[in-house]
Amino acid sequence: MATAPFDLVLRNARVATASDVFDADIAVSGGRIVQLGQGLGPGRREIDAAGRVVTPGGVDAHCHLDQPMAPPVRMADDFDTGTRSAACGGTTTVIPFAAQEKGGSLRAAVADYHRRAEGRAHVDYAFHLIVSDPTPAVLQQELPALIQEGYTSFKVYMTYDDLKLDDGQILDVLAVARQHGAMAMIHAENADCIEWLSQRLEAAGRTAPRFHAHARPMLVEREATHRAIALAELVDVPVLIVHVSGREAVEQIRWARAHGLNVLAETCPQYLFLTADDLGHDDSYQGARCICSPPPRDRANQDVIWGGLHDGLFSVFSSDHAPFCFDGAEGKHPGGEEAPFRHIPNGIPGLETRMPLLYSEGVLGGRITLQRFVELTATHPARAYGLHPRKGAIAIGSDADLVVWQEGERVIRNADLHHAVDYTPYEGHVLRAWPALTLASGEVVWDGTQFHPRPGRGRFLPCGTPSLLPRRSTLP
Ligand code: DUC
Ligand code: ZN
Ligand code: ZN
Fold first, then answer.
1. Is residue 289 domain-resident?
2. How many angstroms separate the alpha carbon of residue 47 from the centre of ligand 2?
3. Per the structure, how many domains does the chain have?
4. How far apart are the first and last CA of the chain?
5. Among the atoms of ligand 1, which is closest to the Cα of residue 64?
């Protein structure tokens, strides 16, 4: 009896996973990978990968989409445009943030965020929570219940007036993470130091975008990183330090690991491909495009970040996509004007360029292995947030989220990107590879030139228990 054809067979793939690189066909049925091997039977649809590298679809575990902002500021990307851009850059799972408002309920924030996402996403999505007001009701009822329902990670901020927690509040939140096996993510910058420096800069008339970096020097991040590690040690719980920007924070994390502490770390493209010079040399406003926090540092710090990507210090490589248009009152010109740096919304776009930048400069530039690329962009983020092996893997039973890589030069032009932001910080950067095909649950969402929309294709993913602890073997 003839066996039924597969829905799809991706033939002649050079399959790259976090542990291996091998040649195989990949058979897909019902949106999942059902067979892997050479010479597989027929598919109703067949695609020839022609020996090109195929990796798991990316998991961007830190991005901001349609997150409510104080008017008039508004994020440029919602779940439609943000996940469109993700898919065209090889990312098939996004994890943005349902943010609690101070004085508001966490559950209400989650319900509101579901309304924003429902029926709009082109790739699958899960939610992190942002805890900005850890009241007894949040700590004792809302948070434990939400963890049970699949919101197993939450971010706390040590800076930003509308979000920041004090040390005692952070300890309370970490205690909930410990009790319920959730993952705590920490934005580590010292708020009082930033405020003190910002006031002095402003009083001296130093308000141009480039002074954003002067208000947030590395020591501000170093001190907060150390404090975050100490708070986690006190509670005895793993933590993940997000968007690590350079040497001094890296040193704190290495110190923690050397002392046996479970401290995970994330970094982002802006700390490899931008420097503080991109905020401008003079009083030009153009640098507002690259304002993000922590700010980009310098070349020596970029090298340290590359070192941590190479040797296993970092587990997760995310975009921290925070999309604000340069023109207009909703974005980098709040109120329609050139504003002092402290009033410029923080964040840059990067969902679509995250994977191609790291593949080009990391893998093809000889700085990291292909397996490490997969680990950083897909497998480890999926494990850190309880989505593995459904996501972040090329294995039987995993979702058929796949990227076929095309080598060759391609210049990044914002006009070619699919987000709703009016610029990219990487305009003119020459890539060495780009996704020629992105499959999301076995459907072609991007074919190298065309995006294939189907809003609502993306489903909400409840997260399981985080299953990633730092590797110690490769560290000093
Ligand atoms: N910094 C953050 O902490 N979040 C969004 C963007 C940014 O620059
Ligand atoms: Zn942050
Ligand atoms: Zn962020």
1. yes
2. 40
3. 1
4. 58
5. 5
How does pLDDT run across 318-338, given as a tens digit for each residue?
999 999 999 999 999 998 999
Is 468 close to ligand 1, i.e. is its CB under 6 Å away? no
CA 467-469-471 angle, 5° bins: 135
Closest ligand 1 atom to Cα of 157 = 3
Is residue 263 included in any domain, yes or no? yes
Distance 364 CA to ligand 3 centre (A): 27
Structure confidence at residue 406 as a pLDDT band (50, 70, 90): very high
User: 354: left (phi > 0), else alpha (psi -120 to 50), else beta?
Assistant: alpha
CATH code at position 316: 3.20.20.140
Going from the Cα of 320 to the center of ligand 3, the distance in angstroms, rounded, reads: 5
Q: Does 293 contact ligand 1 (Cβ within 6 A)? A: yes
Strand ranges inside 284-429, DSSP E: 316-317, 402-411
What is the extent of the structural domain holding 223?
Answer: 58-384
Question: Is 18 domain-assigned?
Answer: no
Which residue's C-alpha comes closest to atom 7 of ligand 1?
347
Residue nearest to ligand 1 atom 2, measured at CA? 293
The Cα–Cα gap between 99 and 107 comes to 10
Residue 264 lies in a domain: yes
- Which residues, 6 or more positions from 94, have their beta carbon under 8 angstroms from its beta carbon? 59, 60, 63, 65, 82, 83, 86, 121, 123, 124, 125, 351
pTM > 0.85: yes or no: yes
CA 415 to CA 348: how far, in whole Å?
16
CA of 241 to the centre of ligand 2 (A): 9
For residue 335, the model assigns a pLDDT of 86
